[in-house]
Amino acid sequence: RADIALYRAKMNGRGNFCFFEADMDAQVQKRARIERDLRKAIADGTVRPHYQPIVDLKSGVIIGFEALARWDHPEFGQLEPEQFIGIAEDGGLIIPLSAHLLRIAARDATQWPVDTKLCFNISRVQLADPLMVLRILQILGETGLSPTRLEVEISEQVLVGDIVAAKEAFAAFHTAGVRIALDDFGTGNSSLQHLRTCHFDRLKIDRSFVMSMAGSEEATSLVNAILGLSKALGLPVTAEGIEDEALISPLYEGGCSEGQGFRFSEAVPQEEAIRLLGQRATARASA
Ligand code: C2E
Ligand code: MG
Ligand code: MG
Ligand code: MG
């Protein structure tokens, strides 16, 4: 073990294996701590969804929000999903965490205008849960959010496992009126066959492609190729990661109808989401 640590310490360029070991211990401990605290955070609500606006690229109007998990940890401060979703998945906590987040998000969404959709991320672990669809529909029932206002997002990278089970879940969602978006499109390797037979309702182009469009002809042609493919498949597209105003019209003209990104807003708490929706009402009234 020491050999490996020494080797990896060298690879890390630290040249100090004691330092590396201490570092690794601290990481393992932090991980264990996060897993323990997450149970508490679900119970006391310090982990909760924030909402990133999704905008109609033609009109600029907010047509929905994506719920993104945020955790205000008492010691570590604001934690990003990357720092705890994976731990929740490995520690058997993603199903209760996701139920907790959806319960809040669905309730919050009932306060938005009825044409505003709620987009919600589903983990690969949930996709393998035979009760997933039932659990989600039950929460919608409890909170009073119509299933037709929910769009679940499934990352292209998780679509490699049991595709038959996934398709059954998708069909059950569709029967209930829930839509399905293929998230992070371009980062996985769905076959064209899957794209057709999974009956997705939307593709979300991964932010890495969108963010590299500025100043790169190659990235721009790649995004245009994705837009062409979606058009051929009859799938509407959302672009993630729009930071630059200048990308809006090329995306729109290429056939991308919806977008989200820091150019519009990052994910915000419910009060702020309501305020953003209010600005839209004011803009409409004065138009
Ligand atoms: P995602 O579903 O692809 O969500 C979009 C991510 O892009 C969010 O990161 C968002 O903050 C970020 N983003 C949006 N616009 C921009 C932009 O203009 N610039 C940049 N640099 N980033 C932008 P976030 O919130 O850190 O979430 C990361 C990932 O964690 C999500 O990627 C999703 O896969 C996962 N995640 C978040 N919340 C949940 C959840 O409740 N359940 C599950 N299963 N996964 C979640
Ligand atoms: Mg982030
Ligand atoms: Mg997403
Ligand atoms: Mg994404």
TrEMBL record:
Residues covered by the EAL domain: 31-281
Coiled-coil region(s) at which residues?
none
**Keywords noted in UniProt:** Membrane, Transmembrane, Transmembrane helix
Protein name per the record: EAL domain-containing protein
What is the originating organism of this protein? Mesorhizobium shangrilense
